[in-house]
């Protein structure tokens, strides 16, 4: 198990117990290593500074005890934000209908980078319309994907004070 998988396995249950879902855990940097923990509320409401502070305190205490990372590093806790990364299968269903950028590890029809309208999932593949053609990218071949900041996305996210997921849940 690599460091990222160990961190996900270690932090995931704590976040779940606190009422959050882990969106992404990333450890990066050499001269100033940073552990980024990105989370969102299970109830779909927008994250607050207090939510991030609560997560930071709990995660920091857990990391102090378990000590999975050698050496000094900075801990950064954040919400996914409006132009969020899409990291879980459910994200591709929740955010269907919005514009995304996607990068594949293995080329699809000679391309690795796509920008287009997310259609959701088909089996184990992300489905989108890019340059007028439907594209399927297997989740296992996904290097990264994120929402593109558009007026439509901003309107959907700000339309409802409950947060974007509460608004999107009717689409599932």
TrEMBL record:
It is found in: Cytoplasm. Required for maturation of 30S ribosomal subunits. InterPro entries: Ribosome_maturation_RimP (IPR003728), RimP_C (IPR028998), RimP_C_sf (IPR036847), RimP_N (IPR028989), RimP_N_sf (IPR035956). The keyword Hydrolase does not apply. This is Ribosome maturation factor RimP. Residues 11-83 form the Ribosome maturation factor RimP N-terminal domain. Belongs to the RimP family. SUPFAM superfamilies: YhbC-like, C-terminal domain, YhbC-like, N-terminal domain. CDD domains: YlxS_C. The gene is rimP. Residues 86-150 form the Ribosome maturation factor RimP C-terminal domain.
